[in-house]
Amino acid sequence: MKTNRTVVLLGIGHTNAHIVRQWAIHPIPNCRLVCISNFPCATYSGMLPGRLAKQFAPSEMEIELAPLAQRAAAELILGDVVGLDVDKQELKFANREPLHYDTLSIGVGSMPDGWKDFDSPALVPIKPMQTFVDRLEKRLELCGPSARCVVVGGGVAGVEIALCLRARLSTPASPKSHSISIVTSGDEIAGGMCQRSQRSLSHLLIERSIEVVKRFRVTKVGESSIADAEGKCQAADVVIWATGAVPPPILTKLGLPTNERGFLTTTSTLLTTAGYPIFVVGDSGTIESDPAPKAGVT
Questions:
Q1: If phi over 0 gives left and psi between -120 and 50 gives alpha, with beta otherwise, what is residue 75?
Q2: Among the listed residues 112, 142, 108, the one whose alpha carbon sits nearest the alpha carbon of residue 8
Q3: Cα–Cα distance, 201 to 269 (Å, whole number)
Q4: Rg, the chain, Cα only
Q5: Contact 48, 61 (CB under 8 A)
Q6: pTM for the full predicted model
Q7: Tens digits of per-residue pLDDT, 14-66?
Q8: pLDDT tens for each residue of 76-113
Q9: Which of 55, 270, 274, 296 has the highest Cβ tally under 10 A?
Q10: Which domains does the chain have, with CATH numbers?
Q11: How far apart are CA 259 and CA 220, in angstroms?
Q12: CA gap 227, 233 in Å, rounded
């Protein structure tokens, strides 16, 4: 059957993966579906803390993209997109010819804020999630049985990561051999939650021997410590970066309208406000008339 139109999914996160799944059930006639990812698998971010706490096997939180695409008779491209030509309706790649699209759906997620400002072997950002636990394990192995672990970011995600890290590192013989702390630039943890929930989390962190350091904005990451602008230091052999969401670099290369934070702006139907046949889904986009907090997912 001749295909007249090409639908391209850039990033196979939650929304775009669902599109592929539905396409396998109800394909659009005379359409070619192309999926683009820089990893051969997609991760379900909601299961990352459980994976960290050893509640799930790696395979339980991952979607292998090749079989997913095959079921939908879709083409899978593993590669890095470096630009967009909206007039020609083409995506540009680092190592292949441009790809034409008739309709494009962008779902490349978000990333933690600030970690790229530092270059330290102690630093373990949570993105990309596909490699987070492996990178963390390698760092922990280097640091030995009494590593001092710091989670940068006092939001709900940072608190959850710290609690699940405690579960991962605890053994019956040595339940709290690793020190774990949370550092946050703010005056509270889990901002946005009600005070009762914040108090409950604070009590739980104390119970699990997880220290909270407030009003500490990290300006330096060394191999065994972090510091703020005032010179205060915190011992840290492992620095897990779990701060708020910012746009991934690719969004700045697409030439589409963004808000003040750099996320692509959309209408209520998730179409770009530029008026092109481009949808923006998940954390990558912000509905201009009704902005919502970022989930920190892909």
A1: beta
A2: 108
A3: 37
A4: 21
A5: yes
A6: 0.90
A7: 999 999 999 999 999 999 999 999 999 999 888 999 999 999 998 999 999 99
A8: 999 999 999 999 999 999 999 999 999 999 999 999 99
A9: 296
A10: 5-110+247-287 (3.50.50.60), 112-241 (3.50.50.60)
A11: 29
A12: 4
Q: Quick check: 62 and 130 in contact, CB under 8 A?
A: yes
How many angstroms separate the Cα of 238 from the Cα of each of 54, 132, 149, 177, 252? Answer: 19, 13, 5, 14, 30
Give me 280's structure tokens.
């923006």
